Structure formats: structure tokens, C-alpha cells
Amino acid sequence: MSTTATPTNTTGTWEIDPSHSQVGFTARHAMVTKVRGSFNDFEGTVVVNDDDLASTQITVIIQAKSIDTRNEQRDGHLRSNDFLAMDEFPEITFVSTSVTPTDASGLDVTGDLTIKGITNTVRIPFSFEGTATDPFGNARAGFEGAVTINRKDYGVTWNAALETGGVLVSEKITLEFDISAIKQA
């Protein structure tokens, strides 16, 4: 297996490998702890031109029903109209509008994030974790990134006041991306 830490020879189409990737999130609960979760059903494509990295196109589609916080009752509530309204809005999408290198291993990916039919522009800083050829001959690339959003900006406004002050669920949600992508032939 060979690896490299700098992006070279990445021109082409890359498919996100969901079995070796994670799309997660963190929210503060009851103002005292963090609850972590993930979306278990997602897909994505990255189209790269090494000669014009800024023209890179990234598309990610997440199935809202795949939300998983390891608590079935909470997951059901998150799927409901109080939060993601998955029956009406089954997909969460991200489509890049620009990719800007920040240093030898960093990229700022700006794009349109759509949750519950509401689209806002976000900038996600990513670190390039390297490329490798796996034992099956697949060229792989790894990226890690995170961004904090305000869920109210996407119409996710449900909450409950606490007797001691504060609220049950934080407005700020951190989205986390650990991505392994496979270069297509």
C-alpha cells in the first residue's frame, strides 16, 4: 500500500465510500452535556481537476431518516416535524460552490447546505489526510472537516425550557465529516 500526504494526481471523479466514512453531528443537551449522532445513509461525489482545484464539484446527499443517536425514542423525535420533518424533507444536501486551498493540506469548501428545504451557504474547512492504494487496487483519498451551524437557520426551532434556565437542545450544531473517497475508473 502506498500513501501520500499531499494531493497529487487527484484529477477525476471520486465516490464517497460510506462504509469507511462518517457524517456525524454534536449538539449540547440540557446545557450540560453533548449528544453525538450520525447519519448512516449518505452518498457523495467529488469531481476534481488538479489544474484548476477551484473548479472542484462536491455533492453530498444524506437521508434524514438515517439519523442515529443510539436512542430510538430520540431518533424518532428528531425525524418528526419538530426537527427534520423527514417525511416532507427526506434529504439533507450539500452542493459546493467553491473550493479554495488554504495550505499544503487544507481546503475551504464553500457550498449550499439544504435542511428542511432551507438553503444557506456554509464554509467547511477540510484537512486532506492523504491518498493511498488499498489492497484491492483502489485509489483512496481521505478528508476531515467540521462546521458549526445554527439549526434555527434551517427552520429547526423546537425546544423546551429548563426549570434551571436555558433550553433542552442547543441552537448550535456541529456537523463532522470523516470522508474516504474512491477514485472511479
From TrEMBL:
Residues 13-182 form the Lipid/polyisoprenoid-binding YceI-like domain. It comes from the Bacteria. InterPro entries: Lipid/polyisoprenoid-bd_YceI (IPR007372), TTHA0802/YceI-like_sf (IPR036761). Pfam families: YceI (PF04264). Gene3D superfamilies: Lipid/polyisoprenoid-binding, YceI-like. PANTHER family: PROTEIN YCEI. Belongs to the UPF0312 family. This is Polyisoprenoid-binding protein. It comes from Tessaracoccus antarcticus.
